[in-house]
Specification:
single chain, mainly alpha, 5 helices
Length: about 160
Amino acid sequence: MIILQLILFCALFTLMVKLGVGNNALNGLYFYPKLVQEKVFELGLTDRETVARKRKRFMIPFFLVLLAALVLIIGLWNGVNAFRSAYLQALLFLEVMNWYDGIVIDRLWVGHSKFWIIPGTEGIPFVQTWKQVLKKRGLLTLIWIAGAAVVAGIVTLIF
């Protein structure tokens, strides 16, 4: 059952990213390295204020929906109400999401889809190298150790 839940959670993650960018990679410019962003600003395709506004409009609902989904999966679907069990499940989900984002989203989807290429920036690398993925995901692995405690606390408060 947990494998199905992990697949559904990662599918929700992917769906939210797709909904956030729609049919235009510029809608997700805040995901790109600074060099790409600066080139896009220089080309006049968008401006900093618009990107900041889109980032906020995406990230707040993105985190709230994923948090709510995780709390509901652990507390409601799995019937967990003890902190330790909730913590371990939250940690599993957050770590799988972390590495899924780095490998499947960043390296595979972004790295192999023409959708993410913004016209005028073709010569600027925007896909993370494996070294960058490992460094970022390793750091986030440590951060999610604390994040899982927050999720577990919410689960135990609600359920």
